[in-house]
Write a structure and sequence with these properties.
Layout (H helix, E strand, L loop, with lengths): L2 H15 L8 H19 L3 H29 L4 H15 L2 H16 L3 H9 L11 H48 L11 H10 L1 H17 L4 H10 L9 H12 L2 E3 L2 E3 L2 E3 L3 E3 L8 H30 L10
Antiparallel strand pairs: 1-4, 2-3
Helix pairs in contact: 1-4, 2-3, 2-7, 3-7, 4-7, 5-6, 5-7, 5-12, 6-7, 7-8, 7-9, 7-11, 7-12, 9-10, 9-11, 9-12, 10-11
């Protein structure tokens, strides 16, 4: 049994099981730790300068603790190969969000399909940071497609990328970085100071995976007989049409593949945030674009896993021993 087979097992478990809400999950534990530590830091850090420092301490504690504890667990189990393999497979499963993202997007899809706008807004509020109370039907559909596109990188491609480089400990550290950004990395008066370090480090951690995601999603568009040429063209043209250096890569690629326009202004915590438009509105966005974006996610994730397997196979053929981080 090897780490690679554990990674594959974890990937398949994610496709099968998704994210049952009552199951133990390390990312939820990370979220609880962030919430608790943030309250403590705000209690002692009152000035803007001290909140910047406190945000750095928050990042170090959460990321270091997540990666360190994961490494310690696998190290503890290293003398028991079967347990180590099972732990690696389970942790890999918890790191990935392909099925969970699909289920969350389809919950909005089904509400829209039955014309239940209130329920679609409620379901959408679980997966986006923007205010959903007054969104129209096209705005809701656009928000879902954007979420699937962005989280194709954050929730699947990036974890697999870091998993292939540093095993489960590094991938878990990445999930901590990403969770910090999703909880405190906002450019609003409440979070701008304490979340500055988290936002910048998330940009750094996603720099390579976002560009890899552009390639994988464009290939997925071609394989699915969507507009593959448009995915490459719009993905490259609009790759910086976002305040984040990474988000637009995947969003623009999906927008190009579907022939729709994404992005634009939105409200976050009652604050209007102006964002540029991404893509070309060759047609109006439709309900089926949600399922199309999900299919792109699934194919891109499979391509990423296949790439990792090919790298392991090629290294074995060249006599290079890939690090077996888990076992």
């Amino acid at each position: 049994m090897t780490a690679l087979t554990a990674f594959i097992a974890g990937y398949l478990l994610d496709l099968w099981l998704g994210d049952p809400p009552n199951w133990p999950h390390p990312v939820r534990w990370i979220g609880h730790a962030i919430a608790g530590l943030q309250r403590v830091i705000r209690r002692f850090c009152r000035s803007r300068r001290s909140l910047y420092i406190g945000g750095g301490v928050l990042w170090l504690l959460v990321v270091g603790g997540s990666g360190g504890l994961t490494w310690a667990l696998l190290r503890l189990l290293s003398g028991y190969p079967v347990l180590a393999w099972l732990a690696t497979a389970w942790l890999t499963y918890t790191l990935l969000a392909t099925r969970g993202l699909r289920d969350a997007a389809m919950a909005v899809y089904h509400a829209l399909f039955t014309d239940d706008l209130a329920e679609s807004r409620r379901q959408l509020s679980y997966i986006v940071g923007r205010d959903t109370r007054n969104l129209t039907r096209p705005q809701i559909m656009r928000a879902v497609v954007e979420t699937v596109a962005e989280n194709s990188v954050d929730g699947v491609i990036a974890p697999l990328f870091w998993l292939s480089i540093g095993g489960v400990p590094l991938a878990m550290a990445y999930k901590a970085v990403n969770t910090l950004d999703s909880m405190v990395g906002y450019r609003t008066p409440q979070y701008e100071a304490i979340g500055c370090v988290s936002a910048r480090m998330d940009d750094a951690a996603n720099w390579l995976p976002a560009r890899l995601g552009f390639v994988l999603l464009a290939l997925a568009a071609g394989l699915l007989r969507l507009d593959g040429r448009g995915a490459w063209r719009i993905g490259w043209r609009d790759r910086y049409q976002h305040k984040s250096p990474n988000c637009a890569w995947s969003e623009a690629t999906v927008a190009g593949a579907l022939g729709v326009r994404l992005g634009g202004p939105n409200d976050y915590f009652n604050v209007r945030v102006e964002k540029p438009w991404i893509g070309e509105a060759r047609r109006e966005i439709s309900l089926d674009d949600i399922s199309r974006s999900i299919r792109m996610l699934y194919v891109a994730s499979a391509l990423m896993l296949a790439t990792i397997c090919l790298l392991y196979a090629a290294s074995a053929g060249l006599g290079i021993v890939m690090p077996d981080w888990a076992l």
